[in-house]
Amino acid sequence: MDISKDLEALKKTSFSNFFEELELERIFNAGKQIFLKKGQVLFSEGSFQETMYIILAGKVEIYKKHKQIAVRGTGDFLGEMALVESKPRSASVRALANTEVLEIEKDTFFKYFASNPKVVWEILKAVSARNRDDLEIIEGGYQEIRNSREKYRKVIDSVSDLIIQTDPDGKINFANKAVSFIGFDVFDLIGRDFNEFYDGDLSSSSRAHILTRRVGPRTTSDLEVSFKVNEQSTLYDFCNSMSFMLTATGMWSVPHEMVMKKGTNKEFQGTLLVARKEKNGGYRMV
Predict the structure, then answer these.
(1) What is the C-alpha separation between 235 and 231, in angstroms, rounded?
(2) Which of 1, 40, 62, 262 has the most neighbouring CB atoms within 10 Å?
(3) What is the C-alpha separation between 111 and 214, in angstroms, rounded?
(4) Residue range(s) defining the domain that contains residue 269
(5) How far apart are CA 278 and CA 275, in angstroms?
(6) Using one digit for the tens of pLDDT, what is the confidence trace for 13-35?
(7) Number of compact structural domains in the chain
(8) H or E segment at 229?
């Protein structure tokens, strides 16, 4: 079976840059293709299925109490909230044209999506952007935004990698609970300069490399770094820093493919850093 067209559709998703083509093929094979005729309902408000959907072709509308909320097309995903909170659907979805979707079940989601912090973050950004756009037409819009952030925060906090985001000035404005591995609470880091957390000489060149503005293949990948252990923690009695392998990417107000285009109106929003523990331990003893 020729799946090249479906793989090309998968590549249009906002998180596809974080998967190799072989991984996308595995995701496709793990999912279930569903073909909808125009007017056919994919799922209804109040129904319960722990699945999400990626649109491979066609177009659907999301509606609530007969009021259209949004229209989604090829490369968009929907229904992901059911995988996070295990609750009935908050809206209905039906096809506006003949449509093909890929159904992703919970096990597949956690195997391929939730295990990749960058993918989780990309999904979170997309959901937040949707809620901002739909604020005026979704009932209780502000609460919807807050709730969606809380739901995805739970997913981000479930991964073992350190996930940190800095603002354009290098101030930490987000961290997940994995920073407890080095003795910090999330709120210990918020508002602090990354330089205070980094163990080493953060020169202007290395700072530009770590707190990178680059996206796509030019991002920082597998860079060995050390982070300080909280001096107020009991862990500091055994070591004062830990080594990690760091991946960093610039965060912009437009999709990655538009960042490098001249004349694009874009704003640098900071850097996303994902640090995983080295296999050999990487402790520095006091």
Answers:
(1) 8
(2) 62
(3) 28
(4) 162-284
(5) 9
(6) 888 888 888 889 999 999 999 99
(7) 2
(8) none
